[in-house]
Every structure is written in C-alpha cells, then in structure tokens.
Amino acid sequence: MNIEITPNYSYIFDFENEFIHQDTRVWMVKNWTYVFYYCGIYMAVIFGGQHFMQNRPRFELRGLLAIWNSLLAMFSIMGAFRTAPELVHVLRHYGLFHSVCVPSFIEHDRVSGFWTWLFVLSKLPELGDTVFIVLRKQPLIFLHWYHHITVLMYSWFSYTEYTASARWFIVMNYCVHSVMYSYYALRALNFKPPRSIAMLITTLQLTQMVVGCAINIWAHGFLQTAGKGSCNISEMNIKLSIAMYFSYFVLFARFFYKTYLSTNARKGKRMVKTTVGGGSNVDQVQYTASSKPTVISASLSATTAAQNDKIKAQ
Fold this sequence. Notes:
EC number: 2.3.1.199
GO molecular function: fatty acid elongase activity
Oligomer: single chain
Number of helices: 14
Transmembrane segments: 35-53, 65-84, 142-159, 165-186, 198-218, 238-257
Pfam families: ELO (PF01151)
Catalytic activity: a very-long-chain acyl-CoA + malonyl-CoA + H(+) = a very-long-chain 3-oxoacyl-CoA + CO2 + CoA
C-alpha cells in the first residue's frame, strides 16, 4: 500500500488488506449492463406488487423492518468511517484536484477500495426498501424509486471507469445514509425522534445534491485545463452525473417545500410525507389539533388505516 497517498489507518482488517481492485473491475466491466435487467425486474415487482396488494390487507413487518434498517445503518456507519479518512487525507495533503481527478482511493488504498466496492454492490439489495413500502401499503412516490434505479445504474457504470470524483459521492452517501437508516431503525423500534431529525435528513440530502453538482462542475473544469490524461473522469460520466444530481436537487427541494414550508404544512391541515431517501422508507408527519408536529411511521398513520378500511369496504 502506498503510504504517501493513503491515511494512516489504526487498524486494517484482513478482508480489507486482501482486496484486489483489478479483479473487481474486470468483473464489473463484464457484468455492469445486467443492471438494466435488475432495474426492469425491480419496476415490475414494485408496480406489480402494488396491484397485487391493492385489495389485500397490509403486512406489518415491523420486526423485519427494524432488522433491515439496523443492518443498513451499521453498514453505512462502517462505510463512512472507512472511506471518509481517505477523502480528508487527500484534501489536506493533495488538494481538490487530486480528490476529483485521481482514483487513488481504489487503486492505492485497499481499505477505501474495499468499501467502495461494497458501496457499489449495496445499491442492488437496497432496492429491498421499496418491497417493504409495497407490502406495507405505504405511499410510493416517484422520487423514491427514481432515486433507487438511477443511483444503481450510475454506480455500476462509474465503477467500470474508476471515476475519480466518485470518492466524494461515496463518502457523502455513506454519511447521509448513516443518519437516515438509524432514524428509520429507531422508528421501526417504536422510538419517536423529534421531527427536526427528519428535517435534518432532508437538508443533508439537499446539501449532498448541491455538493455533487459542484464536484461535477469542478471535474469539467479540470478536464478542460488538465486534459483527459490527467483527470480520470469521462465527459459522458460528468453529463450523466450532473443531470442526475440536478434532478435529485429539484425533486428533493420540491419535497422539502411541500413538507416543511408550504402553507398546508405550516398550518397542519393535512398529512404530508417527510423524509425519503436513496434507499429509505417513507414516513409521514401528523399534525395534531394543537398544531404541534409529531413524527409517526406511515404504517401507524390514521390516513393509511382509513385507506385500508376503504379498500376493504369496496
């Protein structure tokens, strides 16, 4: 391992030290296009599942949901702790250009490389979030499934190129998901975190999108000034990434406004959705008669129960 461009880890696990990035890249180059089949199956399952569940009672699945979110929270926390030091180290000692243009986080750092590989693979099982939404008959909004499939496709494609700017995206995603899945695990365990936590998560997601757009703008500038041989990111990747991040920003901003800033949200006249993320469940905010917001799980919302009763009556 090249010590000069990697942080001084206090401990390296054997499975991290045995990571061989060349093998994973060869596998991904051969197999990344299967992601389109996975996304097609995903769409068929979730929308077919909604149709299947339309006249059937919802599943509770609270215990399974708590385990699912807890596992994803622990995975994200571990990933954040194992990848963030590399980004900080590079920024401190090599600067912004290196962090955007040089893929040393995979090629020279086995710790960061291993958790980058797991990050890319994890986007496939994270599709399971939506299965819970369908089986529990929660609202499935466009932002949720669109975010899932585009992140999956972009992550697998980018790994084939060893896109250098991905170190930023990976660290940000791990950090945001650490908070987000921990929140959902607590909700599934019947804890009641304050509404401000849900608002914080959406704010972090918006910040992630702004930084993602900024990184792509810098990458484009570096590519023009330093040349393709010096900056390991393709023009196509930049176009795809900035389109993706900008669309996320628009959708999350609209979501944030409708949830927290709109007239109905402030006055508490209706049930509104709160946090939704890349790989998240959908919660709702219920406003009591005193206009004091209380975050509750969608599975427990009176609205959902009423909808179920209506369906049964039909």
